[in-house]
Structure to design on (127 residues):
């Protein structure tokens, strides 16, 4: 396995990458709507999804006794991120229009599952 793939499979690095990608998702979404106060706005948009992300990591860790650094466990992380993120957004009166749910689901799938798929591909190629 390449050094990069091995580094990305380290739980701390993988978790921080997931957090960064959720923040990028929120930042791009806010920028596309030209909303004010970029830092607080991004955190305001991202927090429900970050809670979902942490929940997904905890579910995988407790049920599988491993870290969600591979594609399969990443599906649980992605699903939890979207589901809990949308439930929390709804609970605090933020938007959950079906178009937002769809876009968030697709973008977060590409982000959270994409890097895991690339790492798995690199590991198979190196083997």
């Amino acid at each position: 396995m390449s050094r990069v793939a091995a580094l990305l499979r380290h739980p701390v690095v993988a978790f921080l990458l997931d957090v960064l990608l959720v923040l990028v998702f929120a930042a791009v979404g806010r920028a596309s709507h030209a909303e004010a106060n970029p830092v607080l706005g991004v955190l305001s948009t991202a927090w429900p999804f970050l809670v979902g992300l942490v929940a997904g990591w905890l579910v995988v860790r407790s049920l599988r006794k491993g870290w969600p650094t591979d594609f399969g466990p990443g599906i649980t992380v992605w699903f939890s991120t979207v589901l809990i993120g949308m439930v929390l957004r709804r609970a605090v009166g933020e938007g959950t229009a079906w178009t937002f749910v769809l876009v968030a689901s697709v973008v977060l799938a590409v982000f959270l599952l994409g890097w895991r798929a690339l790492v798995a591909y690199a590991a198979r190629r190196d083997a």
